[in-house]
Amino acid sequence: MIALALYLPSMPENYYKFEWYLKNQRKRAKEYRHRYEVKNILYKAYRPGKHQEVPPSITNKVKFAAHAKKCGLPVPETLAVIKNGVVSAKSNKLLQKVKCDLFVKPIEGKGGRNANRLEYMEMPSEEVLFRDTFKNKISTLDKILDSYKKRSKSHKNKDGYLVQPCLANHSSIKPYTGRTVSTCRVITIVNEKDTPEVVAAAFRMPSNPQSVVDNIHAGGFSSPIDITSGKLGKASFLGVSGNLGQLEIHPESNARIEDFTLPYWSEVIKLCKQAHTSFMPRMIIGWDICITEDGPIIIEGNAQPCPDHIQRVHRAPLGNERFGQLLAFHIKKTMQGTANNCRIKQ
Prior knowledge:
By secondary structure, the protein is of the alpha+beta class. It has ten helices and 14 strands. It is 28% helix and 21% strand.
C-alpha cells in the first residue's frame, strides 16, 4: 500500500476494494479510474457544443420521470409530489384508493438514502392502511403523507419527495431480491459514431431481504453482468468493511448467483440505448433498470455514475475498456474544440 501511495493518487480503502494486495490486480492499478477523477474532473471537463441545447434533467427525479414519459419510455407512474408542506397529486381520490405498495424517495436524493417503502396492508374493513417500513408503524396514508409534508418544510428537505407505486421484480429474480426491488446498473456512453453504447453493467442485490433499497453503498452486493449475454458472475460487497470474498450462492435463499441469466436482457440493452438518445446531448448516463414480469422499466438515471461499483464487482479496471476509451475520446474532443476556439479569438 505504501509503495502504491508514492505514485498512485488513490484512497487507502481502494487497496482492499480493488484487491491491489494481489499481484495480478496490483499490476493494473494505474488503469483504474477513481470517483474523485470522474466526478470532479473528467465528467465536468466534458461540455456539449455551444449550439447544442441543454440536456433534460436527470438529477431531479420528477423532471426526469416527466421527460421519460413524454418520450414514451417505461417509468413508474408519479402518484404525488410532496414539497413545501403541500401534496400535489393528479387525483387525490385515486391516491387514497390505491391498494399496492408505494415507494417514497427524495426528489434530489442519491444512493438510496431516505428512501421508504409503504407496504399496503390487507384489511377486512374498508380502511386502507400502510406500514411505514422506515418507522415500522402502521397508519393511514393521510397520516404518513402528513409526516412527509412536515419534513418537506425544512431546509434540509426543501427539494421534496416523490411518491410512486412500488414495482416487483420478475419471478425468476425474486430468489435474489426478497421484498426489495433490485435493479441493474447499466452505463451508456455516446460513442465515436455519436450513438449511445452500453459499456458496463452490474446487478444489485440487498444483503438483507427486508431492505428498502439494493444499493451497494447501503450494504448490498452486486454481480457483474456480461453485457452480451446477460449472464451474472460471482457477487461482491463493496469491500470496505472486511467483506472481501465473492459469492457464488445467495446467502439468504441459497439460489445460485453465478451463471444465472437475467430475463429480458436484450430488451434492457435496447431500452438503455433508446433512453440515452432521449436525454441527449448527455455524454454518459448510469441507468437503474428494474426487470419486471412485463419487461424492463427505468427507475431513474444517474448523470455521474461512479466507477468504483463497476470496477469492484467486475474485478477489473475501466481505464482501458470501452468506458475509459470513450471518456478519453470525449475529453480529447472537448480539448481540441477549446483550443480551436482560442485560436479563433486570437
